[in-house]
Amino acid sequence: MSITYLDAIREAQAKALADDPRVFLYGQDIGNFGGAFKATKDLAKKFPGRVLDSPLSEDAIVGMAIGAAIEGARPIIEMQFADFSTCGLNQIVNQAATLFYRTGVPCPIVVRLPSGGTPGSGPFHSQSMEALYAHYPGLVVLTPATVEDAYSMLLGAVEIDDPVIFCEHKFLYNHLKAESLPAEAEPIGKARIARPGRDATIVTYSAMVHECIAAAEEVATDGFEIEVVDLRSVKPLDTDTILASVARTGRLLCVGEAFPWGGVCAEVIARVTAEGFGLLDAAPQRLNAKDTPVPYHPALWGTHRPTASSVASAARQLLEI
Amino acid sequence: MSEVVKARPKAARDEGQEFVKAYRIMLSARVLEEKLAALYRGGKIKGGVFLGRGQEALSVSVGIHLRKGDIFAPLIRDQAGRMAFGDTILDTLRTYLGSALGSMRGRDGNIHRGRPREGYYAMISHLGAMIPLVAGGLLARRLRGESGVVGATCIGDGGTSTGAFHEGLNAAAVEKLPLVVVIANNQYAYSTPNDRQFACADLLDKAIGYGVAGHKMDGTDLGACLKAVGEAISAARSGAGPQMIVADLLRLVGHGEHDDAKYVDAALRKKTVGRDCLAVAAAAIVENSWATAEELAAWRDEVETEVDDTANRVMREPEPDPNEEDWCAISTPELEDHFA
Ligand SMILES: Cc1ncc(C[n+]2csc(CCOP(=O)(O)OP(=O)(O)O)c2C)c(N)n1
Ligand SMILES: [Mg+2]
């Protein structure tokens, strides 16, 4: 049997609904239609009255989830595309993110964001928004890169008593397959060594993990072993695992699909520079998407975002090959 | 006085009782807000002061018709409604004066207070944003199998122009939730008059567009407010879906205590909307012989003493201590991010 990343997202929601009567799903077209990407296929039938179609209203979707959470429910809401979550931004960053701090009442909601670029998706169906949400105190921001993590981290997210921004990558939905769903899970908040190495560290997350592993394989033909760290969670950020890797390799490249200004890569470099300056043999580098909107045409898009080959050349530069 | 009351039919007596109860809450809110204004002028308040003078009749009518177990998300000018729903002089003063013992522990202040666990949601500043929240709270109650619950939230004429107002009310209407949206049409949003705010002939017209029931009344008339709000809340409670209330009135203070409200059209103050609902209600009480003018004066003295005593007590309470704060914004400490 083979299970895709998308199947994992759906199975995690099915398990959450089955295990916990407080869980319900709310979002656009997620009911009988099963969602724009089919991440909720058949769930409305299996769990009558608990998988609800919403109007086209991101502010209301998020706001209602928060109200429901105050009353003890554990809603999972789907933004049809991460990009549209800007229409619910106020509720996420001002309401969900501040509720516990202000009132002491936790806000256990999961906001699913189908994120990242796919060929032909263009400026408004391709964005990676993790840095925007990670900027706000009060949110947990997860970026699973594997089928196993998509499943176990989504289940974990439902159990967390705080608002979780769950950035699932659309490019991985059907591309990524595993043999089975995991029985055990790595704890949320811990990064993972996706590929061990000794000569340089690449810190990355989400779909870029796979580009970076491919880049590391390519650079291995030159005789260099690159360690790839998959962050899994961008907030909290597992600085310890990053620093331990940099201590082994002395060199750091951060790779992210998001826009370059600020963001996860900038944060990782800031922390490593501040807390592990002495571990570095070379100036830390980052590789992000270009500082333009995400272009529509695949020929442009393929250059806008980092790829295995652009990561490999950045890594070679870092290694001074 | 008791002679007169006894001589009246029971319905009139009950009406009188509810009216007087509402009046006394309005009076408490008014006296408390007068104290807040004085404390503000004396530099004792942390942050701003935003008062509801002139809007107490509408506000109290909401709080008084809600029950324990209902949901209430009041807004800026709802001191009276808050108190009718169970908020206290003590917690109000603690929040304004920044006492560490207040419900918001110094983490938020003034009107941004509540006790969500008790159905009393704490507003964020962003207008309109509480409407979806109350709708979601009601949805969760329904999913849990509860019925007979009502959720009410208040907003101003300006707030009706927000996207959240539209999205929240529309979504609640689609789900036929027992949501009551109370619009205090006080003719201005800060300095912006209604003719720069909306182009419909009447805000009530919006109810038709959302497919919800609409109710309209004179917001300076306590009897009219109690009746219309009571009917709307009963209708929501019995399953008739969302209800929209529009009350016409005027804010009789500045937007906040920093504002002299010079922009308010002087002619409006002379119209019905410009009446002081508290004075109108007091006159009705005396006219109906539900109480005498002397009793009314005694009630005011009583609240003034309580408010003064409470303020003196709160001013001696500790401030929040930054060294005692855990400075953690989430409830799961293991997931806290650490910055060196
Ligand atoms: C979304 C948003 N924009 C702007 C403000 C700033 N603001 C606070 S109160 C106010 C006027 C509100 O007018 P209205 O809704 O009519 O209520 P009123 O003050 O008259 O009671 C404004 C503009 C805000 N709080 N929220
Ligand atoms: Mg107004």
Overview of this protein structure:
The complex is a heterodimer of chains A (321) and B (340). With 321 residues, chain A is α/β, with parallel strands linked by helices. Chain A is built from twelve helices and 14 strands. A seven-stranded mixed beta sheet of chain A has the order 3-2-4-5-7-6-12, with helices on both faces. A five-stranded mixed beta sheet of chain A has the order 9-11-10-13-14, sandwiched between helices. In chain A, strand 2, helix 2 and strand 3 (51-53) form a beta-alpha-beta unit. The model of chain A has no long low-confidence stretch (mean pLDDT 98). By secondary structure, chain B is α/β, with parallel strands linked by helices. Chain B is built from twelve helices and seven strands. Chain B has a five-stranded parallel beta sheet with strand order 1-2-3-7-6, sandwiched between helices. A two-stranded antiparallel sheet of chain B has the order 4-5. In chain B, helix 9 (222-237) links the parallel strand 6 and strand 7. In chain B, helix 2 (10-41) runs antiparallel to helix 11 and helix 5 (89-97) packs across helix 12 (293-315). The relative contact order of chain B is 0.15.
